[in-house]
Amino acid sequence: MYTLDTILPYINHSKISMPFPQTTFSVLAYDTRKIRVGDHCLFFALVQQRDGHRYIPEAYEKGVRSFVISDTEFDVRLYPGANFVWVENTLRALQEIAAYHRSHFSIPIIGITGSNGKTIVKTWLHQLISAEYNCYQSPKSYNSQLGVALSLWNLTAEHKIALIEAGVSKAGEMAVLEEMIQPTMGIFTSIGPAHQGGFDSLEQKFQEKWKLFKRAKTVVAPSSVWSHSLEEYRDCITWGREDSDDLQLLELHRDRDSTILELLYKKQVFSLSVPFIDKASIDNVLTCTLVMLTLGYGIDVIKIRILALRPLEMRLQLKKGKYNNSIIDDTYSNDLASLQIALDFLAQQNQSSIKRLILSDFEGEEWTKSSILKLADMLNVQPLDQIILVGSRLEPVKENLSIPSLLFESTDALLESLQHLSLVDSVLLLKGGRKFELERVSRLLVEKSHDTILEINLKALENNLSQYRSCLKKGVKIMAMVKAFSYGSGSFEIANVLQFNKVDYLTVAFVDEGAELRRAGITLPIMVLSPHEGTFDDILLYRLEPEIYSLRILKSFVAFLKERSIEAYPVHLKLDTGMHRLGFMKDEIEDALTIVRSTLSIRVATLFSHLVGAGSDTLKSFTIEQISLFEHMATEIESSLGYTVIKHICNTSCIVHHPEAHYDMVRLGIGAYGFDMAPNGLQLEEVGSLKTTITQIKHLSKTETVGYDRRGVLLRDSKIATVKIGYADGYDRRLGNGVGTMLINGESVSTIGNICMDMCMLDVTDIDAKEGDEVLVFPDLDQVAHNIGTIPYELLTGISSRVKRVYFYE
Ligand SMILES: *Cc1c(COP(=O)(O)O)cnc(C)c1O
Question: SMART domains annotated for this entry (predicted)?
Fold first, then answer.
């Protein structure tokens, strides 16, 4: 807890209005949706993605009384009793406070950066050294300008060492992170082309990242990260294959599922057994080993602990559970910060109003009276119906809970009683440390998974949304297209994220799709593109808003509403400006307007049209014609209606290409899922990854053939893998015979023979592959689509419903 007046000297402010300078705060808030109770929050009106000043009324409503803002015009008289600090840059102020907090600690603070492996090295090190140190690690992948500040804020006097991850996406960012973290020791994991985006060259990226170690006394890195031009950076502790390396890798023997490393450290040769075989994991283990050696750990201890490492499922997963539950599975680590993230994700879920938490004890935590109370306080303000605690040390937490709770001594005890707990019809968060093996509970609660899954990255969806948001002028709304099962990626799972992130409208193709979202608790307005007479009842029942595209549907909907004496029902008028699919042509407008003006039953909520080729250069002049025709028609309609309506014409590719056509709203479709033919500088992330596994491997001589009709002709003795995906799953039959490629252990392989209904075969002769290995089915969706003469839309929406969707949120 700090008081406002103590921190004031540490932030660069221009003005204050502070009736109560002694106000204390312990929470740095920037997102009103995450505020449960307002006192003790210091709210920062961040302006990076949305203008945080707009959320001040809501924060005040929730009890927040201390604000850091940048808008000099902001009228604070509306907020009696509240404290305001004006700064030039609110994010900077938040970082300054985090840096001030960090300055109170003289413990080792280890800064971790690199292109890949940061999060895994951090999490593994935490596991490896927790027995000796009360070790703090920054939660999940909180490594950005904001994430690092929030991470540091969680440091407490009980921590003896801290692992802080730092990530940068463009030049200039690391200096700010370094100022905050001030690492006493550094770890550089790797350098690679990942996130090349904001850098001119690999050298520039490397130099930027290295700035994290400005003050660090020791830096651990693989020697392979230096190219010749970077000799000057050589001053640190390294691992690698060279004689000059502090930890030298002499030999490496790969087995079926483990690797033996022969290593040399300070003239001592030893072998280390590693429970992984992939290169990335082995690199990360070597980094961790050298850090442990540097911290003074003995080789024997290191051997035992490395052997116990497990690959991390580092993500919060949302799964379909048995008994009508949704399960949020987050069973790899547990601490206050990551618990908060998981609880926030739980709060976003609307599909059931009953919310439960199963929570294990925290590994390595030495509970004190104050930390017990802190946990109980945090839980008591959550919208939870039941809390199930695992671990007898949590007894005092239970005593302080006001929410109905149960306590089990161990995971075994919970498993024994599980069937009597009637865990049905709820959203259930499973949150536990690795040691507690809550994944055993998850296995019993989650529906069995098929080997072929479509992984959906909800964080990527959020990222894409904010990328497009950053292209829009203030006030322009977003309608998110969730038709066709959200382009194949899910129903309420996607809609919950969009609703939480405040899009303005959702759009579905059919009434059924909208009804499903309503039943799952989605409250946003929902437009239906293709309504028809038979579905009007459901439109009313589920408060859906129809697209009105013809005189016939207009007349029948008005008549339908009139019979029920319904007035001002929102509808969306579709104008045909050249697509010639649905919509009113120019010469039909007058008749339509006559009907609209003469009835009270409907109110035109929006006017819109659709472009035929917004992303195409060759169709540019046609697009411009469509836009101007739309503008012309819309102006005429508005003036005839006598009220203004929301106008929209842009789909994804139009957003970037025709900012002049954003009007009041844009319709974001495929871009939200990570695809845009010409994203022009936007950094999109693919939301879905289709994955399967190798079922069997065969060694065949060159005289054999593979698959139906002997189409898979071998030209050499070959190793052939059968994978569990076929055309019935949405793997197009045209991708057979070498047209399709998949990725196994980072290597590209081609199909061989015809695609079967439920399976297909891959030529894996040239790569390391074994049964059970994971296979990425569409490593480059644009390219695959192009190869068979279609578009990513068709492939995405064609992934069949029998392919299980697994959602995660990083
Ligand atoms: C599908 C659809 C969109 C979204 O198109 P994207 O190219 O996926 O952005 C927009 N408007 C209408 C009417 C649509 O049917």
Answer: Ala_racemase_C
